[in-house]
Write the structure tokens for this entry.
Amino acid sequence: MSTVFICDDEEDLLRYLGKLLVASGYQVETFSRGIDLLERLNAGDTPPCDAILQDVRMPDMDGLQTLALARTRWPQVPVVIMTAHAAIDDAVQAMKQGAYDYLTKPFPKEKILGLLSHLLDHRRLETENQLLRQELHRSQVGRNEIVFRSAAFRSVYDLTLQVAESDANILITGESGTGKELIAAALHYNSPRRAAPFVTLNCATLTDNLLESQLFGHIRGAFTGAIVNQKGLLEEADGGTLFLDEIGDVSPAVQAKLLRVTQEKEFMPIGSTRSRKVDVRFVAATNKEMLQEVKEGRFREDLYYRLNVINLTLPPLRERKDDIEPLAKHFLDMQTQRMKRPVRGFARAALELLLSYDWPGNVRELENVIERAVILCRGDEITPSLLPLRPQRAANVPVPDTSAALIPLDEIERRHIGVVLKATAFHKSRSADILGISRKTLNRKIVEYGIQEEGG
Ligand SMILES: Nc1ncnc2c1ncn2[C@@H]1O[C@H](COP(=O)(O)OP(=O)(O)OP(=O)(O)O)[C@@H](O)[C@H]1O
Ligand SMILES: [Mg+2]
């Protein structure tokens, strides 16, 4: 018999669901507080249940936080999120955090029962296939596919393969989300160093001290807390490639130290008095205008030239629109496989919307938009309403000129709300932000003016 845990602060719903599931042959435990659920989950050494139904908005503890903790404790136990219809962004967030599926309240009992039995079947199969799948997963890591069709990207990619052979340091530049990290990995895996490690250091997220200790390592007793010798990333990358991500954010002090390593291939672990030799190729990336940084004195010129022996510049997605469709299909395939959703493709209008948008967040934004669409898609096709593109740079939607028409004020309001809703693909919280009103007010006006999704 399968055991289901239900967690919701609405006592009535909790009682109703409990009865329903018991009557359908499940063993049930109910919790009205997230904290109680977590306590119960933490108790044993084996998962105490086969599935969890969980409300997102809870007074004592944020449901997403509960979800995260539950997933950490028992990653194999599927969690189904229950959310109010208005809180669809919570559902998206929950799915990204690994929820199995979500239900919007109110839902008919067939829906919950169907979902549960599907999920438990699925889980049984999953357990059987686990070993197999782990193998599969391992062989896919490090084989990140690079997708493109444009001539612009083709020429950068050709250059990448060409310079991968050499041992020259390389600086990759390009806006955020254009694929710099992917290209850095391609450089390594197509180089003679491919059998040695590819090590990444993100320079933007660390303080100077941490950055140095990560990079150079330290010896025991070098500072309080340094209780063992710690190898630095430079040493880890010996024979391979060290990828210095967000190099434009490194402080002058660390820049000086990096200069020495890149020149002499020699460094000293913190606290040590003996320098060590390493054989490392440096690949660095940044979304800053490095020449500008150099000119304004924020980045050392000598280090810049050291790292920038060859420059690879990734064009923004809006300058290679030919890549949008293949990338969108690629991400759609990835997500439908991952989430096991039967989504076949894009509706024509959806594809047109993707093509007309200018993608300020580049490929990463496209990836996120597709992921969200797949999560929310209930049919077999992605439709435009599933694609909420950032409004400020969405394709120009002409605002009708109502100034000359002799019409009442509220008619202008009605039309304008319609225009904004359309521009955001009916994304209500974004529309409310743009209009400078609360979502509640927006909802009221939508009802009041009878604005409908199709045609506004
Ligand atoms: N040509 C591509 N084919 C497939 N996936 C891509 C491509 N370009 C980018 N991606 C994906 O888009 C996301 C962003 O790419 P990546 O992290 O390499 O960008 P970035 O330039 O390093 O961004 P940032 O400057 O913000 O760090 C990643 O998930 C990456 O796998
Ligand atoms: Mg990056």
In short: The chain has four domains: 3-139, 161-314, 318-393, 409-449. The chain has a mean pLDDT of 86. Residues 144, 146-148, 174, 176-182, 287, 327, 330, 363-364, 367 surround adenosine-5'-triphosphate (ligand 1) (CB under 6 Å). The chain is about 45% helix and 15% strand.
